[in-house]
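Batch manifest, entry 17 of 40.
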Amino acid sequence: MTNASAAAPAVASIPKNDKRITNGWAMYDWANSVYPLVITSSIFPIYWSGIVSDITKQDGNSPVDFLGFQVPGSSLLTYAISAAFLLIAIISPFLTALADFSGRKKLFLQIFCYLGATSCAALYFFEPSTLTLSTFVFVAATVGFSGSIVFYNSYLPIISTEDQYDRLSARGFSMGYVGSVILLVLCLILIMGPEALGFAVPFTKGQATRFAFLLTGVWWAGFAQIPFARLPADTGRPTDAPTNESGWLLNGFQELGKVWDELKHLPMLKRFLLAYFTYNMGVQTVMYVATIFGKDELHLPDAALIITILLLQIVAILGAYLFARLSEAIGNTRALSWSVVIWALICVAGYFVQADWTFYALASVIGLTMGGIQSLSRSTYSKIIPENTPNTAAYFSFFDVTEKLSIVIGTATWGIIGQWFGSMRYSILALIVFFILGLLFLLTLRGKKLREEHAHETVSSPPPSAPHGGTPLSVS
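Output type: structure tokens
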């Protein structure tokens, strides 16, 4: 196949393991992790449920009118999440191919960051009368968040050596957990007691909650300036890159096609993507619907839910580092397999959980494994893609599409089953199937070398050796 190495010199010129760059890269986790915590996991779902209750004068799972359809409130939220991730799954491969071809990874990272942060801030105007419009704003914010992650993740194999992937990935997630917890605490102070921040006229609880959405967008865009300043500058399209009269779009498609051809000769990479696709359906769905489950199924008070989310984030910091060390001891796929087994057991326990100490115990276990499985999945994929490839964004677009499609299917399955049976407990049982399938696919990777070396392989980069001249690392 055609060698796709035109941009390789630009990639090779970036220093590896430079502390200023890697610390700056990890700061984007600090910046954007406030969105999944404040918006998707804690305050926004509670506020959403309250809006639905205000509209229907019943609970947060009561049907509301959306574009002429009567949809249960909790299901509408999961459908909105599904729609957002379906959209980004469709467009991200083309955008990342263009980013690789044009040499403008940082530009695309900035575009999606500002789209997400601005839309997040716009949720300040979310009231019962704006439910439909605010649903679309929420979708735009989610697209901005998930789109920026594609380009952010694609920097990992560019700025660090393979032996540092696990620890750098864990550092990023841990910084994200710390930063998001700090902002969540500030938001809680704002909501529970605005006078503590010096406001002469206290906000109503609803106004303070909506101000928290605005603060989240400002935090995200503000702290993102640190990685924007430290990450390598966009190089622009290489002067020796092939061109044609059709411009960027066609060339972007061609770059994406090259990566697709390379994937055909990387069976291990395809196996991992299949495993990730299945187990991630369960992981992401639990993370997105846990608060709604606690609010509408267990009828927990808002304060208890927020405390639970804080507990989950703090434990996740420890989990990210523990699983990084575990992977060093027993290999990536073994560590991932153990985490998937734990997630399957979480689903079994979730079906029986009640609004007492069992809920908090289960949340602690979720937090411990949440950080580990997310961090290890990203670093494992970074180890499997061809070394020194110039198409890191395009490779990570396949990773991102896999993640987003799994979220679409997982959240849609949750919403449909919950709507059909009238209880979210049955939705939890369906997630067990995803984890079992993911575990089976992970087991096909056991004992395999980290990067494949086939005589017939024609990918753009040569077979790598292990760090420090040893034998190739193993993910088993």
